[in-house]
Amino acid sequence: MQERSTILVVDDEEQMRSAMEAVLARMGHSVIKAVNGSDALEKLEQSKVDVVISDMKMPVMTGGELLAQIKENHPGIPTVMITAYGTIEQAVEVMKDGAFDFVTKPFSAEDLEGVISRATSKGRKIPTKKASSISQDAVAIVTGDPTFKRVLEIAVSVASSSASVLVQGESGTGKELIARLLHTSGKQDNEPFVAVNCAALPENLLESELFGHEKGAFTGATATKIGKFEQANGGTILLDEISEMELPLQAKLLRVLQEREVDRIGGTKPIPVDVRVVATTNRDIRQTVAKGDFREDLYYRLNVIPLYVPSLRERKGDIKLLLEYFIRRFSNGAAKKITDAQLKKLEDYAWPGNVRELQNACQRAVLLAQDGDLQAEHFLLGAIDSTQESEGDDSLRLRSGLSVAEAEKRLILETLRVTNNNKTKAAELLGISIRTLRNKLHEYDAPR
Ligand SMILES: Nc1ncnc2c1ncn2[C@@H]1O[C@H](COP(=O)(O)OP(=O)(O)OP(=O)(O)O)[C@@H](O)[C@H]1O
Ligand SMILES: [Mg+2]
User: Fold this and answer.
1) Which atom of ligand 1 is nearest to the CA of 318?
2) What is the architecture, at CATH level 2, of domain 146-308?
3) Which tens digits make up the pLDDT trace of 161-194?
4) Are 53 and 10 in contact (CB under 8 A)?
5) Which amino acids bring their CB within 6 angstroms of ligand 1?
């Protein structure tokens, strides 16, 4: 049972005030109401208040001004702000200004209950980190790009909120890094971070992976299994490639997000969970919604805070920074330089696999250069498309004029030479499976 707290509700609309009062009273709290900012400040002087919830848009004194006054005169009282849907900037501002959390209009009774119970029970977890202190150590995100920096700033400033975040961007742009940044900037070290790839498992397995199952729930369920949501309790769950989730499971996920409780498969009672959800997709999810393959209501639930990660093509300036960073990392600090001409070549390349591709290219280049200088051909741009176990698509031509198949063969043989024929190591460096490596060697009629 939660303790009874006193909540000050601040809104200029009578209907909103009484609706919130009804929900909060049902939770067992006592409610004080104020019709505007200055009324709220008076009530704060008169009575002991545990939590304030206030609308942003009010005549006389805005919610932002009220928040500033509360921070100044009653810094210990967690304050939840009500922001309008689609005004991400506003949400970010209130978090920066020290709000405990925010809810976006329109919100449900469950949303209100969720945010108030966090503010009253866990409570007083006032964010201490400022937007400017993006930790370069915990999660190294290398960028000098203003647009991307802004995205990181927003991520850090909303990190302590529990609002869902949808990170969109092409493959390999750093979406998972952002999810980790959200976690490390907002949560304590001992709180869990759990990642689930929604594209990796068929629907029924994904369901039990996410929500768990009881022993005997289905054939093969020989023991009770704790789902990822329960494992992530108190922390963050990363739902990778969310757009790949099937519709029936989407409905179940929506319920979990609304009710903040999970049903284990075969379970008899729901289990409450307090989890921050970060979802990612490399598809245009609005298009998936338009086609009817993704529930619109779930999309809105997940997309409270939208973050867009620009592709590497859209931040060409980062190519130089990332090259320097990865080359230093993979050559153990040895000073390997690239010439301006080489850099130009690398900057002109399209990087369809974004930072991941660049990282792999650097790793191979350092390996192939051995103790010598780095040459442009060591990067073998586009030589290996690790997303596709290609048979060598002749339409893809290397800039050097080598066919993909030829370049691939050279790279594979060279990598094997450098690794002293260690196939496991070579496959790992090349970013392909051992099986693919063996098949390639079979093709080349090389020793397997
Ligand atoms: N700005 C960056 N600085 C340093 N490393 C980065 C940066 N962006 C991405 N990386 C690295 O590139 C790789 C791919 O990043 P990540 O896994 O976050 O991408 P993603 O967008 O989740 O990709 P996918 O869509 O394929 O899941 C990781 O090894 C990550 O550490
Ligand atoms: Mg990812």
Assistant:
1) 1
2) 3-Layer(aba) Sandwich (3.40)
3) 888 999 999 999 999 999 999 998 887 778 999 9
4) yes
5) 140-143, 169, 171-177, 280, 282, 355-356, 359
